[in-house]
Design brief:
The protein is mostly helical. It has a domain of about 90 residues. The protein contains four helices and four strands, in the order ββααββαα. Strands 1-2 form a two-stranded antiparallel ribbon. β1 and β2 form a beta hairpin. It is elongated, with a radius of gyration of 23 Å.
Length: about 130
């Protein structure tokens, strides 16, 4: 027990009394949002076009292929340039640009990342032909 100069009572926590080690809280990664530099790199990599339909009317923020709420980070590999329609499709809000079921949108973007991007988030050789399908 400690007494400070103001005569306030400040007991030791139970863990210190018993000599127990306290668990440290895990800090979640703080880089879930895309930095401005990563946004620009994603847009440049994708030639400022939606990776699904090829539209030039793109969102001002890339789509997180693995959602932030599920641990997706703001990395170049986890980002895709999308238009509003394809972004809604990726979030199961509408049918795809070619009439695909809304339930297939998210998986299409995951498959696109695996098929077209390397571990650094750059285009794989020969991957350009697979765009706009």
């Amino acid at each position: 027990m400690t007494v400070n100069l103001r005569n306030e009572f400040n007991p030791y926590p139970k863990s210190k009394q018993l000599g127990l080690k306290t668990k440290k809280k895990r800090k979640s990664p703080k880089n879930k949002n895309f930095t401005q530099a990563i946004k620009l790199a994603i847009f440049k990599r994708d030639e400022h076009r939606c990776v699904k339909c090829g539209s030039h009317k793109i969102e001002n923020v890339p789509h997180h292929v693995i959602y932030k709420s599920q641990g997706g980070l703001g990395t170049k590999q986890n980002g895709a340039t999308v238009c509003r329609l394809c972004h809604d499709w990726a979030h199961h809000k509408r049918k795809g640009p070619n009439g695909e079921p809304s339930s297939e949108g998210r998986q299409w973007f995951v498959d696109w990342c695996n098929r077209c991007l390397d571990e650094n988030g750059d285009r794989k050789e020969g991957a350009r032909e697979e765009v706009y399908t």
